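Researcher: Structure for this, please.
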Amino acid sequence: MYGTFLAGGVRIFEYRPAMLHAKTMVVDGAWCTVGSINLDARSLRCNEEANLNTCDESFACEMESVFMSDLEDADEITPVAWRRRPFMRRCYETSASLIRDLL
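Model: Predicted structure, token format:
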């Protein structure tokens, strides 16, 4: 899905030190959500996961600060780098995309 997102102007960063499972979002510097729910139909319908949602500007500011700090340990995936990824990686991604609805 990176190609679609990049074409739409979304900036993508991959965090290097570890895989993070938590999902966080700050909207308009005030509303925040933190938890494990993916923003897809399966997670919202089937999975037993939870998020904490709050409307708190001071918490939102702290969340944005943590995110900016995390970016220092992340690599940005640019459209040019995405187009230049190895052929075998493209093959694996295409194969996985065929069963993504089952994952």
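Researcher: Any notable elements?
Model: The beta strands are 12-15, 23-27, 31-35, 51-55, 74-77. The chain has one domain: 2-102.
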